[in-house]
Structure formats: structure tokens, C-alpha cells
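Q: Given only this backbone (317 positions), what sequence would you predict?
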């Protein structure tokens, strides 16, 4: 791994340690909840009763909270990240633990203040999201990430809370929030299961008891396919065309993964499914596509310039 010492590039470490490419799955789920208020209106930005005025504030503040959580996860996972040769900005000392904690404090405080300007229910959902993803997921006494079923429930909760943040901009909490979130909940949990597979060997060496370690690749792939199928069924039953878009485009990849049952196939399915989810949001709000493109190419340029790495990509690696 080549390390560029250009000062302007190294300063970007403090941004890219936030794992900005992971903002897009979180943003997409949040925006899905936001746009569900216009379930059958494919031009919501033209709706006179809309809240498109707050969408920028939502994106920025929620990115800050996600970034804070991702840093906390890296602080907790230094050993396993070394074993799996990934997320090296903190584990390899490019950013000190002290500086990382200062960044967490600044991001979480600023993010909560900004998102509170929307309404109190959005703030409460975002605050619970930060507690679950930042503290309960990573640290004792709960350390849900180290418990197979706890990790699954935590990741399901993270996705559901992201959806709720978007929903609560328009509507109060209700049973309908739970019902309408089902296609997104099952889809995201299926993809989460796939993300546990590439790290299986390193997790075994560092004594992490993940679902992949406990049940093995074939069982995890089968379980993920069942959850994906539930997502597709709920999308049809609820007539959620937004969810149908990404489910139907993802279906061939899930079928291929079910047939091949290897890590490369699951990684490729995850990447393309996240892309299809995001593109379904672009159909509702085309500006999101420009944000995706800029995020992709800026991240690719940084990792190539800083470490001579080809990231992100759509390969099975």
C-alpha cells in the first residue's frame, strides 16, 4: 500500500475516515422514508405541501451522525481491522485515537443540533440512531456487534431508524411507519448479512462471534435470500413502486448468489443492490445522482492518490 505524504491529501484523512461511501446506504434509506410521503408522486419536489426545503439539512446532519458512528466502530475494531487488512486510517495510526475522539464529539454534537431544527420527533429518532450505532453497537456492556443476533437486531434497528428519520419530517410516528418500512427493513438486513462474509476468516482469528462465523457462508446466503424475498413481497403488497425498482433490479444478483454461494458473489450483489437502491431514490430526486457521482469519484481519487488503492469499485473484492 503506497502512502502519499502530500499535506493536502493527508488532511483529507479526517474526512475519509468517516467512510463517506457508506453515507449513501444510510442516506438512501432515510430519503426513502422522506419520499414515502409521496408514494405515487414521482416528482415530489413540485408538491406544494412538500418539505424539500429541509433535505439539505437532513443530508448534512445525518451524515455527521453516521460519520461519528463509523469512527467509533473503527476505534472499537482496531484489532480485527488489522486482521482483515481494511479501514487502516485509525488501525494503522494515520489518525490518532485522541484526534478521532475529538472528531466524534464535534460531529455528534453539531449533527444533533442541526437535525433538531427540523422537529423534535426527527431529533429523537436521530438521537436514538446515534446511541444504537455509536455506543450500544460497539461498547460494553451491550457491545451488540460481538453478539451474532444482537448485531443483526442492531443493524435492523439502524436501518429502520434511518427510514424513520425521513418519515418523521412529514408525518408523526404511527403503525403506518412500521408497515411502510418493511420492504426497506428486510432488504437492508439481507445486505447486512452479506457484509459479514468477507471478514469471516479475520473475525475467526480475532475471536469475533458473528453470524457468518457461527453459521457459515451457505446458511447466511440462504437466510439473506429469504429476507430479500420478504422485501420483494412487501413491496408488491404495499404497492411501493420505489421499493419494487431496487428489488426487481437486484433479483438476478440475489439469484446468482444463491446459485454460486461464494464471497465474491455476495460482495458484488451487495454493491449493485446498494447502487440500485440509490438509483431508485434518484428517480424521485435527480439531484441525488450528482451527489452519488461526486462521492464516488472523489473517494476513488483520494484512495488512488493517497494509498494507490482501487476503491470504490464494483468487483467482487
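A: Predicted residues:
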Amino acid at each position: 500500500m503506497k502512502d502519499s505524504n502530500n499535506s493536502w491529501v493527508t488532511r483529507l484523512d479526517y474526512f475519509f475516515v468517516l467512510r463517506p461511501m457508506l453515507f449513501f446506504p444510510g442516506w438512501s434509506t432515510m430519503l426513502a422514508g422522506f419520499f414515502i410521503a409521496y408514494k405515487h408522486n414521482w416528482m415530489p419536489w413540485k408538491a406544494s405541501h412538500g418539505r424539500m426545503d429541509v433535505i439539505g439539512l437532513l443530508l448534512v446532519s445525518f451524515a455527521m451522525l453516521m460519520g461519528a458512528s463509523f469512527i467509533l466502530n473503527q476505534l472499537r475494531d482496531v484489532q480485527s481491522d488489522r486482521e482483515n487488512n481494511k479501514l487502516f486510517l485509525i488501525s494503522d495510526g494515520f489518525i490518532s485515537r485522541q484526534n478521532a475522539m475529538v472528531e466524534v464529539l464535534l460531529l455528534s454534537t453539531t449533527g444533533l443540533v442541526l437535525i433538531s431544527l427540523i422537529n423534535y420527533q426527527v431529533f429523537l429518532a436521530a438521537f436514538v440512531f446515534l446511541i444504537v450505532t455509536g455506543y450500544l453497537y460497539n461498547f460494553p456492556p451491550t457491545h451488540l456487534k460481538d453478539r451474532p443476533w444482537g448485531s443483526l437486531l442492531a443493524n435492523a434497528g439502524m436501518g429502520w431508524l434511518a427510514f424513520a428519520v425521513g418519515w418523521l419530517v412529514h408525518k408523526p410516528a404511527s403503525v403506518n411507519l412500521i408497515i411502510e418500512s418493511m420492504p426497506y427493513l428486510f432488504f437492508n438486513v439481507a445486505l447486512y448479512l452479506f457484509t459479514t462474509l468477507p471478514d469471516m476468516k479475520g473475525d475467526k482469528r480475532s475471536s469475533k462471534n458473528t453470524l457468518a462465523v457461527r453459521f457459515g457462508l451457505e446458511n447466511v446466503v440462504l437466510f439473506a435470500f429469504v429476507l430479500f424475498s420478504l422485501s420483494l413481497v412487501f413491496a408488491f403488497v404495499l404497492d411501493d413502486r420505489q421499493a419494487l425498482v431496487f428489488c426487481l433490479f437486484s433479483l438476478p444478483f440475489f439469484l446468482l448468489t444463491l446459485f454460486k454461494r461464494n464471497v465474491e458473489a455476495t460482495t458484488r450483489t451487495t454493491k449493485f443492490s446498494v447502487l440500485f437502491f440509490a438509483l431508485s431514490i434518484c428517480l424521485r430526486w435527480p439531484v441525488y445522482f450528482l451527489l452519488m457521482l461526486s462521492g464516488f469519484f472523489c473517494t476513488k481519487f483520494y484512495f488512488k492518490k493517497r494509498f494507490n488503492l482501487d476503491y470504490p469499485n464494483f468487483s467482487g473484492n
